[in-house]
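Figure-free illustration: sequence to structure, shown twice.
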Amino acid sequence: MRLVGVAIFDAAALWFIYRLLSDGVWPVAIPFAVIVLAANAFILFPKLAPLRWQLPAISLIILVILFGIAYTVYSAFTNYSDGHILTKLQAIDRLARDVYLPEEGSSYSWTAFRNDQGEFVLWLVAPDGSGLLARVGEELQTLAPGEAGIGELDEDGIPVSIEGYQRLSRGEIIRYLSNLDGVEFGIAPDAVRIRNLNEAAALQQQYIYDPERDAITDRRNDVTYFANEQTGFFTAADGTQLKPGYSVTVGLRNFKRLFGSPAFRGPFFSIFLWTIAFSFFSVLTTFALGLGLSLAFNDPSMPGRKLIRSLLLVPYTLPGIIGVLIWRGLLNPVLGVIPLTLNSLIGWTPGFLTDPFWAKVGVLLVNLWLGYPYMMLITTGALQSIPSDIYEAADVDGANAWQRFWNLTLPLLLVSVGPLLIASFVFNFNNFTTIYAFNEGKPPMAGTPTPAGHTDILISYTYRIAFEGGRGSDYAYAAAITIVIFILVAVMTIIQYRFTRQWEEVSESV
């Protein structure tokens, strides 16, 4: 039974992989082939039998994580974007569906008939009023009423009935229109296809692909378009291109575009610096407030501290998107409580949604509200692990409160929460939700060739390029930026872990 199950699984998987390869989607076929090979190895080899139970998890890791990473890296070296989404084989297939009506071609009005087996025939009425019966795979027939089961004609020249078939109403024709689309009735070159609800015509395939020359010929004007592997278009001698294009590898072009053009370099480095500042100040402010609250409520003699501490955790229990939208309303310059209150008190309102500087302040304020409960939680736990006898020794030595905090509490605290601070920095480096939900990265920067805002961080800037660009979605360029983001985060994380080792060295000497 196991072998039968494996055979059925392999047959279905191989058919699916073959379909992917026939469309030229080999980057997607590879991970599925790896999963199929792993599944066969785990099931057929006894030594690998324990891994059978891990196969679902391994498959998800390959598809969701490894494939996502690998395909992002691959896309960064291609022209994958609007107009170049398809593979070459898919683009050829798409162009092969285009049809045209030659000058000598005939057009007709049509009515569909359907039998109980789901087969269709068309009654065609030519401009001169003559009627033709069109069947799939048969010559067009000129028939009079009473011939071949043709019933009496109505005032429009259409048979009331055809033997074995039922005439379809306009509503029924719309229902079956997808079944009729692309079907040829008759035999070429006189075969007709449905063009729209009112017309059927002797349409012909417009574009013919020649694999030997790797070219496509437009039969309507006899122009030949040759495949250009540099641009991903079929291009004629005069430079005219057929659309859609197809995806091709372009080497380092996306990275050169990022670092080589001053127009692109300007918003990127400006956004990069703000991303670092946003991450740093988010961690600094949330850690400072969370630690301050932890120290304040760490005193057992404070009344109601458990209740107050629980209430302070409320922002952490709510979905972040809800908190951001609430703060967006509070900071709204027209209706927001905070701007209206400031305006009534001092006659001035910060542009939390419109001014570049105050928009950044607003984002940090919102992130402070969302992040301080987490810092309060981890620092509260870390404070409980610090032995009290070192504070007693510090009191004997005459240390004041500030000296005890700076030389004892903070170094020992950073040893345990240091990795969490690094994780928080990395999280805020890619904190798309807060940026996009608060102000969509706005206010916009002026004079940038790609959509960019003053509060955009690299991840939201990448999203804008991929999905909001004026020239359409530019996935390959966005993938190149994500690789740069990964390298930057990795370097900064390594540097930050070096600082955590320094904190550990400090704690060893306390």
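We now fold a second protein in the same way, so the two outputs can be compared directly.
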Amino acid sequence: MLLAGGCDGRAPGPAPSGTQTASVTPTGPCDSDTVLASWPLARLAAQTVVVPINSSQLATVGPQVAAGVGGVILFGAQAPDDLKDAVAALVAQAPDGIEPFIMTDEEGGDVQRLPNLVGRLPSARDMAATMTPEQIYDLALQAGTVMLANGVTMDLAPVLDLDDRPGPNNSNPDGTRSFSRDRTVATLAGLAFAHGLVDAGVIPVVKHFPGLGGTNANTDVAPAATLPWDELQRDGLLPFTAAIEAGLPAIMVSNASVPGLTALPASISPEVITGVLRQQLHFDGLVMTDALSGGAIEGAGHTVPSASVAALAAGADIILFTAIDAAGTTRQTIDAIVAAVEGGQVPRDRLEDAVRHIFEVKRVDLCA
């Protein structure tokens, strides 16, 4: 199983299997970078892709897991009763024992995939309005414990965007998914939720960097722009800065453009990922895209495969998308990444670096 990195100096709760070990047989003194350098491009590319599936149909993505995808994201309104066994059977197919992230969106309120397992959770806005940070921590700890017991190792939560408008809806991606428009309230509540997940052994992914609060559209539906960059730096960016300082392991980047910084969707923008997130804020954890099948990406002229190449080139590590034909889109995306490396559009070193970030969060030891 997978373990998250510690937060705020505290050790995470243990996942059942501890550090993953890969069955490699080096010919001399082993070095993880040397092992990655020996991997075929297709295997490296597969690790950067997350395949989507309804949780009731997990067995159908067995071929993708056997091919070494980096993650599986669960959709649906509730989980099957046998989710734990289905996940165990699925991850057993992963090559060399390098299990994929098993992830879902368990935020609370309108965004829950496993309510029949973890129970109905209040929306983020209701949590912040009615609960102390300690109570939010306890709630997330309890939910995370149930998630991990059923094989779910990553939660795409909490939302750290600052928003107090109606939603979520076609014009506002946040609404009640945001803890508060007040950055102090949102930071304390959001980090409490994240720490609860970590201490349950589940990896939190804070989102949507650099802040979707106040956007002029929903990026799932259409191109959208955030508030101006100078305004974001004074306000909406600060909860993410706090999350980085707290040592949280993973950040999701939004598909909105950022006026004053980039005209590209942030998830495919080197100015956002490499310039701000890596160099300015010194984040060295896992960078995940928002779904590259969203309307904002299509509006920028990209398909999922071409956007995936652009995201990796910009500095992202792992790719999300939704698709009717998940198997076909996964195959096309892996092929596009391989072709981009072979053609010089994405340096092989960048692809290896992405996999290195993935393995650091998974705690994979290639030389065990």
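Summary for the second example: Confidence is low (pLDDT under 50) at residues 1-17.
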